[in-house]
Write a structure and sequence with these properties.
heterodimer; A: about 375 residues; mainly alpha; two-stranded antiparallel sheet; about 5% strand; globular; B: about 180 residues; alpha/beta; about 10% strand
């Protein structure tokens, strides 16, 4: 009973940490990063006026100002809209983005006061499949929003997002088959543990899979250069044209959290998860004197390394977003079906051949 | 309540409890640094808007950079350029479609008074159609004038009492939008 209470407490703490990290830290920070990074890339100064008692924190408080304004903005539902679906759609968009984080390990396994602490909310054997299953639910958020708004532009945006997300869902699953063959596991926890040796990081043998996966993931997230469902110059604001205030910003929050989730997945699969290069967690524990203290320090370092790697990949995604213009709709579809899909099939074949011939020893 | 600072009686001042005043302060702080723009650009002043939005003058410094082309998500209607009578119903419709709270920025001489187009085809000032918060004359106005107007609008927003119930309502011209306000 006592250990069950301990397990329950541990799980609650981990869930609170992950949700707090996403909604409390990453979502507002990404709003700020998007503004400031675009400002730096365009040789501007960027938002810097909102302050409290004269402290502006490099414009960080503009995220708070936006949130306050949006909370007190009129909540609007158009006449003829499906009220329940219209209200439900932003929730359906946000929840899967958060839920995908459940299977991503963020710090490793440690023994703390005779209790095994595994820093992942749910250690599933089919973690990768879970991520894809949950990610496909996010499609419904956009489609329902488009349909329930009773608006032509929303409808077109919803249809486009259905087509685009479905196409890239299929392709995204195929891009990482090579990686799964290399690690011989679908569990993200196992994949992360196998990257304790720097030469087993996914990026070393599986770099084509990384490029294909990142492209698909950005397309799945509907961000520029793949934002045809939103397409400001064609569809006003796409599937969330008729949303105002907090409901509107929930779609953006979902987008931001998906950026974090994509980064976390890439880090876990390709960039050594929470490991430092050439230093294993066991070495860290012994460096800091072993025991509970050493375990806690090693745990914190693991979490810090994981978050730092996520930040680096967020920077990469933001740079892509502020560099490229939007693809035309048919170009997006052609890229998915005619280029990335065959390329990932070829990569599966090449990986299989290399493993068979012993050129790429499996881990 | 819509009470101005000057006309506030002692009784009204008393009725504004401390908590409400502080909430007002927080909301007005948020609103003044977070304008999502709806650029309603019809003519040559648009070049000056591009200038003020671009790197040199950078309207984003004041937190007013994000253009939303859906009126539901916009706070500040920037009317930039000549409004002809043919264009007027569209402007009124866009204004009515915007969600509360909303503000209107008359950008350039044509929107302020019709400017040099004193003729049958041009609306003689957009305040004959919709309520206007800030007038920036000039043909076209320099970016500094626009930024000055934006700062004055921020001061106006900060000075508004009873932020929770601040409503502009729909324009009397044109049909009311298909809207159902639920909160």
């Amino acid at each position: 009973m006592n250990s069950m209470t301990g397990d329950l407490l541990e799980t609650v703490v981990k869930i609170a940490f992950v949700i707090g990290l996403n909604l409390g830290f990453f979502a507002p920070m990404l709003g700020w990063v998007e503004r400031k990074q675009s400002a730096v890339m365009q040789d501007r100064i960027g938002a810097n006026r909102a302050g409290v008692f004269g402290f502006t924190f490099i414009g960080l408080l503009h995220s708070a100002a936006d949130a306050i304004k949006l909370i007190f903005k009129e909540d609007f539902i158009p006449r003829g809209a499906d009220r329940m679906m219209h209200t439900l759609a932003p929730v359906i968009a946000v929840v899967p983005a958060l839920a995908a984080f459940a299977v991503i390990p963020f710090g490793g396994k440690f023994e703390l006061a005779g209790h095994n602490v595994n820093l992942v909310i749910a250690d599933l054997d089919v973690g990768l499949l879970f991520v894809f299953a949950i990610a496909s639910i996010a499609t419904y958020g956009a489609v329902i929003a488009g349909w329930a708004s009773n608006n032509n532009w929303s409808m077109l945006g919803g249809l486009r997002s259905a087509a685009q997300m479905f196409s890239y869902e299929v392709t995204m699953g195929l891009t990482i088959i090579g990686l799964v063959m290399y690690y011989q596991s679908l569990s993200l926890v196992v994949i992360a543990e196998k990257q304790v040796d720097f030469w087993h990081w996914g990026i070393i043998y599986q770099w084509p899979a990384f490029i294909l996966f990142l492209t698909c993931a950005i397309a799945e997230n509907k961000r520029i250069p793949f934002d045809v469902p939103e397409a400001e110059s064609e569809l006003v604001a796409g599937y969330f044209t008729e949303y105002s205030g907090m409901k509107f910003i929930m779609f953006w929050t979902a987008e931001f959290i998906e950026v974090v989730t994509i980064s976390a997945l890439c880090v876990t699969m390709f960039f050594g998860a929470y490991h430092l290069p050439f230093i294993s967690p066991d070495m860290l524990v012994s460096i800091f004197g072993g025991g509970d203290f050493g375990a806690i320090v090693a745990m914190l370092i693991g979490i810090g390394v994981f978050v730092a790697k996520i930040c680096a990949l967020i920077f990469l995604q933001m740079a892509i977003r502020w560099t490229l213009p939007r693809f035309r709709y048919d170009q997006v579809m052609a890229l998915g079906w005619k280029i990335i899909l065959p390329a990932s099939l070829i990569w599966i074949f090449l990986t299989g051949l290399a493993i068979l011939l012993g050129l790429m020893p499996t881990v | 309540m819509g009470v101005t600072d000057e006309g506030k009686s002692d009784l009204l001042a008393l009725s504004e409890s401390v908590i409400v005043t502080k909430l007002d302060d927080i909301i007005s702080w948020g609103r003044q640094y977070s304008f999502f723009l709806y650029p309603f650009i019809t003519a040559c002043c648009g070049m000056e808007f591009m200038s003020v939005a671009g790197p040199r003058y950078d309207i984003d410094r004041f937190g007013a950079a994000l253009p939303r082309f859906s009126p539901r998500q916009a706070d500040l209607l920037l009317v930039v350029g000549t409004i002809s009578h043919k264009q007027a119903p569209i402007l009124v419709k866009v204004y009515n479609q915007m969600t509360e709270p909303k503000w209107v920025f008359a950008f350039g001489a044509c929107t302020v008074s019709g400017g040099m187009y004193d003729n049958y085809a041009t609306v003689q000032g957009i305040d004959t159609l919709i309520p206007v918060d800030i007038y920036v004359p000039g043909c076209p106005p320099r970016p500094e004038m626009v930024l000055d107007g934006l700062i004055k609008l921020q001061e106006k927003v900060a000075g508004t009492r009873d932020q929770m119930n601040y409503r502009r309502g729909v324009s009397p011209l044109g049909e009311a939008d298909d809207r159902k306000i639920i909160g």
